[in-house]
Design a protein that fits this description.
Blueprint lengths: L1 H16 L7 E4 L2 E3 L16 E3 L3 E2 L15 E10 L5 E12 L4 E6 L3 E3 L4 E10 L12 E10 L2
Antiparallel strand pairs: 1-2, 3-5, 4-5, 5-9, 6-8, 6-10, 7-9
Length: 153
């Protein structure tokens, strides 16, 4: 009885490895061919996507009536979220002062951010205002920017 169980198990294991096998066709005495076989490699993930929220500036408590002050540096924080199924790197591009450029001494773009699938982070732009002798009173300052994203393999 034990030999029959062993033989049955061996037969199942041998036949199990042949499941899905295709028998070749003989070409002649010394050769054979199997044609038109297909193997699934997998599928690609979704296209790269991300969300960018409106940039925000937090003014310190010393600001008068929420106004910018000459010579101060302000940081624009731009929240970003990876909505892709893989890690991506986001970076700022084409940063420019679109309004009130005469009152801005410099802009510095923060470093790129790498986010895992579904993660959130922030990009930054530091803007330093010109001195009191240059700033134009009642001028508003606006900054425009683009965000580029690339897969991080």
């Amino acid at each position: 009885m034990r030999n029959i169980k062993t033989l049955s198990l061996m037969t199942l294991l041998t036949l199990g490895t042949l499941a899905g096998a295709v028998t070749s066709s003989s070409n002649d005495y010394d050769s054979a061919t199997v044609t038109n076989q297909t193997t699934a490699l997998g599928s690609f993930g979704r296209t790269l996507t991300f969300d960018v929220s409106t940039g925000e500036v937090t003014l310190d408590s010393a600001a008068v009536n929420g106004s910018l002050r000459p010579g101060e540096t302000y940081v624009v924080t731009i929240p970003v979220t990876n909505t892709t199924d893989r890690a991506i790197t986001l970076s700022l591009a084409a940063v420019s002062v679109t309004e009130g450029s005469g009152s801005v001494a410099s802009t510095v773009t923060g470093e790129a951010v790498t986010l895992q699938a579904g993660a959130s982070g922030a990009l930054t732009i530091s803007i330093t205002m010109a001195g009191a002798d240059v700033v134009e009173a009642t001028t508003s300052v606006s900054v425009s920017y683009s965000v580029n994203g690339a897969a991080s393999y």
